[in-house]
Amino acid sequence: MAVPDSFLHLARPLGPATVGSQPTTTPLKVVVQPQALFSILDHTLRRHPEQERVIGTLLGVRSEDGTEVEIRNCYAVPHTETQEQVEVDMDYQKQMQALHLRANPREVLIGWYATSSKLDTFSALIQNFYGQQGDGTYPHPAVHLTVSTNPGEDIEIRSYISAPIGVTPERSEDSCLFLPVPYELKYGEAEKSGLELISLAKDREDRSQATLTDVESLEKSIVQVLDLLDRVSNYVNNVLDEEATPSQAVGQYLLNALSLAPKVDPANIERDFNNHIQDVLVIAYLANTIRTQIDLSNRLATAALTAAATEGIGGPGGESGGHQKGGQDGRRGGRGRGQNRRTEE
Amino acid sequence: MARPRTDAPPMRDSPLRAVQVEALAVMKIIKHSSQQHPTIATGALVGLDVNGVLQITNCFTFPTVNAPADGQQDSASSLATAAPRAKANTGYQNEMIRLFKEVNVDANNAGWYMSTTMGNFISQNTIENQFFYQKEINEKTVALVHDVGRSSQGALSLKAFRLSSTFMTAYREGKFTVESLQKSNLRYQDILVELPVTIHNSHLITSLLHQLPAPVPTEELSIPPTLDALQANAPAGPLAPNFAALDLSIDPFLEKTSDLLLESIETHHTELNNHQYYQRSLAREQSKITAWQAKRKAENAARVAAKQAPLPEDEWQRLFKLPVEPSRLEIMVNSRQIEQYARQVDGFAAGASAKMFAVRGNLIPEADNRD
């Protein structure tokens, strides 16, 4: 990320301070999932050219005590902004939210995003709308995520919650105090493979990348590991040649890592290796045998009749069926046994 | 555009050459699939067709179907698989696309996606869905299949499929008898056409990715003062490559695939039995007819000899009813599924054996000298 903001975070009451029913106190931790961020960026690209920023709704899950929110999903909401007024399509927001909730009943309204870093009166107005009682996130604070998308600059992400401010009710409607809260970009184990492929495309001119096969991704990983190993051994050699400064910490770390290498009897390894490689090869062999058999079976079923078409439908067809069946049975028996042995191991 | 690489032969008559998926759609599909796992997740794709390349730019999930309380995972899965062509979802889909249109998202139905594990996705349901899409909604639609199980082992497994035009014709007629198959020359390999999939990023995402902790830093790093400091400040792993591909667990995959293969063979066996039963009853009926015809002939000969008018000889068509030939569709679909498994095992075996030799070479260095 761009330079992460550092700020001191203090717990403080939020919301109208009605004594007795304190809504929620900060601090709040915001977790952003990549697909939400991607969706925001996509929305930026699809805005009308005259629009300076676009906004949308954030959906996600909130931890039970409300101190941690995870932004999982979001959608664009059309709005128009002029010097004097801002107009958000509330109907659209409600409809879209209803549709999203039907597909993901567990996700709740978290807040909203805007694709520019600036905070102004309109932001406050919209923020108050999202945080209001009823349709809004009340009693939890609405989260506001800003993603700056100026071309040529780093993408800057900031997250805020707000506290009401203003002396009169009229004033407090279009003003609020935005409090920065820390956020974190997090992705799950399952998304790793997707992100990997996506990030492979980032250094390419055409910004695209074909899906990889198993062997290709294995190759990539191995090359990478070899590079890393080279680098480490280079460093170690340099230390030995007294060219690089030795470090006790690195040495200890390497020693720890090396001691993880299991010490096993070569005979055991040999045996395990042979067992496993046989497993792999047998399954591969069997799978291909089955494929051939199935192919044959299909061909026989349709082709045997062509040759015998003149002899009437009944006889030869039945016979060819019988043949296939026999072949099937024999093979099935054999395979079944092989399979059982395999799984027992 | 990268060179297309597919398992299935390229189809000349297909209106689409390739599928290009935006990063956003990829991430959404992955998220939905892993959330629903092990139940099957389905959703709709939107995008545009540009000169034969279908660009999938966004997607949305179908509403979760509430399985009956007593229903197990199976029924939930089958409901989810049927979702793309369910009536209620068509409305949902249209509504969603209408709303998408207001925010300038490509409001054009581009197909549907589903999640699967271990390549177990070719079923009548899948085919019916895709048929529904290709016939009812838009000729240029695809089915994207995301394999959750395989993706967790390293490379993302995302495949795009369409039904071939020959299969479409046959399916429309609903005839899968031996005779019709001979005529159309339709083989099970031709049911689905696989299209090459590429991932595409927008400029902004490229920019974002360059900010994320990407490759291992190449410059000289400062030396950590203590071991604790080193462990505490462990650098974040890069997005690519991800070392899950180096995982050595082989057995679970093999076991699962073998199970699935056995299951498919079982199905194949049942279907063959059905056909055999049909053949037998057909033969029986046929022999009855022949006997009847011979009898009638003899009778007629007797009648002619007795100077009586012969009885009609084609009455057997009314008297006997030939059994209906069972459809070969199930067999074909199943065969295609088996083929999918076999290819998958091939791909896996290639990687697994390489990894195993590497491990052996690593653990017994003397093995190299001996060989």
UniProtKB/TrEMBL annotation, chain A:
One of its GO terms (biological process) is formation of cytoplasmic translation initiation complex. Keywords: Cytoplasm, Initiation factor, Protein biosynthesis. InterPro entries: eIF3f, EIF3F/CSN6-like_C, JAMM/MPN+_dom, MPN. Residues 312-325 have a biased composition (Gly residues). One of its GO terms (molecular function) is translation initiation factor activity. GO terms for cellular component: eukaryotic 43S preinitiation complex; eukaryotic 48S preinitiation complex; eukaryotic translation initiation factor 3 complex, eIF3m. Residues 310-345 are annotated as: Disordered. Component of the eukaryotic translation initiation factor 3 (eIF-3) complex. Belongs to the eIF-3 subunit F family. PANTHER family: EUKARYOTIC TRANSLATION INITIATION FACTOR 3 SUBUNIT F (PTHR10540:SF6), EUKARYOTIC TRANSLATION INITIATION FACTOR 3 SUBUNIT F-RELATED (PTHR10540). This is Eukaryotic translation initiation factor 3 subunit F. It comes from Eremomyces bilateralis CBS 781.70.
From TrEMBL, chain B:
GO terms for molecular function: metallopeptidase activity; translation initiation factor activity. Keywords: Cytoplasm, Initiation factor, Protein biosynthesis. It comes from the Eukaryota. Pfam families: eIF3h_C (PF19445), JAB (PF01398). Its main location: cytoplasm. Transmembrane segments: none annotated. It is found in: Cytoplasm. CDD domains: MPN_eIF3h. One of its GO terms (biological process) is formation of cytoplasmic translation initiation complex. One of its GO terms (cellular component) is eukaryotic 43S preinitiation complex. InterPro entries: eIF3h, eIF3h_C, JAMM/MPN+_dom, JAMM_MPN+_peptidase_M67A, MPN. The keyword Endoplasmic reticulum does not apply. Residues 19-167 form the MPN domain. HAMAP family: eIF3h (MF_03007). Component of the eukaryotic translation initiation factor 3 (eIF-3) complex. Belongs to the eIF-3 subunit H family. Component of the eukaryotic translation initiation factor 3 (eIF-3) complex, which is involved in protein synthesis of a specialized repertoire of mRNAs and, together with other initiation factors, stimulates binding of mRNA and methionyl-tRNAi to the 40S ribosome. The eIF-3 complex specifically targets and initiates translation of a subset of mRNAs involved in cell proliferation. This is Eukaryotic translation initiation factor 3 subunit H. It comes from Eremomyces bilateralis CBS 781.70. The lineage of its organism: Eukaryota, Fungi, Dikarya, Ascomycota, Pezizomycotina.
